[in-house]
């Protein structure tokens, strides 16, 4: 995909997946987060290459790992939440000449580069200016967001983000489609998600 940039937002490894505390010790959560991060960076590299992957984080450890892989290691601006960090990274992507931007979370353990390429490319209108949104299992959240060109000035991750992103993309003039894919909809957020993923991978 020509001039695609992948943005990977990452919390400090000791902070991610806090809802899994009933099942995992702090060290186990840190290990799980590190595994998810390394897997996601490998998917991003396959999609866009290292130089077109932006890792945005306030963790020096995470940024060092990204830099060692020759990715763009972008320190979060002070006081940023997730949406602010993504807006910051999107400005950097536009400044580097990206014609398409994919937001790739680290907690999609079944996501593959081939599955992501498929949902991005499979757009009925084949419009040159488009936004593809992949929902979570509830149908209300956003698991993947692809836009070309990267026209969104603001992001709305949180409650009801799917329709908020759809509205923002349409307002920005992008032809917008919502896709549902069982593997890309599977994220690890709650203890039952982790249990289900472990059961699935142990078969």
UniProtKB/TrEMBL annotation:
Catalytic activity: (2R)-3-phosphoglycerate + GTP + H(+) = 3-[(R)-glyceryl]-diphospho-5'-guanosine + diphosphate
Coiled coil: none
Keywords: GTP-binding, Nucleotide-binding, Nucleotidyltransferase, Transferase
Name of the protein in its database record: 3-phospho-D-glycerate guanylyltransferase
InterPro entries referenced in this protein's UniProt entry, alphabetically: CofC, Nucleotide-diphossugar_trans
Keyword Aminoacyl-tRNA synthetase found: no
UniProt-listed GO biological process terms: F420-0 metabolic process
NCBIfam families (alphabetical): F420_cofC
Pathway entry: Cofactor biosynthesis; coenzyme F420 biosynthesis
Source organism of this protein record: Azospirillum palustre
Homology family: Belongs to the CofC family.
Function according to Swiss-Prot or TrEMBL: Guanylyltransferase that catalyzes the activation of (2R)-3-phosphoglycerate (3PG) as 3-[(R)-glyceryl]-diphospho-5'-guanosine, via the condensation of 3PG with GTP. It is involved in the biosynthesis of a derivative of the hydride carrier cofactor coenzyme F420, 3PG-F420.
Alphabetized SUPFAM superfamilies for the sequence: Nucleotide-diphospho-sugar transferases (SSF53448)
Primary enzyme class: transferase
Keyword set includes GTP-binding: yes
A Pfam family this chain is assigned to: CofC
């Amino acid at each position: 995909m020509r001039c695609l940039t992948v943005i990977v937002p990452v919390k400090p490894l000791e902070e991610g997946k806090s809802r899994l505390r009933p099942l995992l010790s702090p060290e186990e959560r840190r290990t799980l987060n590190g595994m998810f991060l390394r897997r996601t960076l490998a998917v991003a590299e396959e999609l866009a290459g290292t130089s077109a992957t932006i890792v945005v984080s306030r963790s020096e450890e995470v940024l060092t790992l990204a830099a060692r892989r020759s990715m763009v290691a972008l320190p979060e601006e002070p006081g940023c939440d997730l949406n602010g960090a993504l807006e910051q990274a999107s400005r950097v992507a536009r400044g580097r000449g990206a014609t398409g931007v994919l937001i790739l979370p680290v907690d999609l353990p079944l996501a593959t580069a081939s599955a992501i390429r498929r949902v991005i490319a499979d757009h009925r209108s084949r419009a040159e200016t488009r936004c593809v949104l992949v929902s979570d299992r509830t149908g209300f959240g956003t698991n993947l967001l692809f836009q070309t060109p990267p026209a969104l000035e603001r992001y709305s991750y949180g409650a009801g983000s799917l329709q908020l992103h759809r509205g923002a993309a349409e307002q920005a003039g992008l032809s917008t489609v919502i896709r549902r894919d069982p593997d890309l909809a599977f994220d690890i957020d709650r203890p039952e998600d982790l249990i289900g993923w472990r059961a699935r991978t142990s078969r």
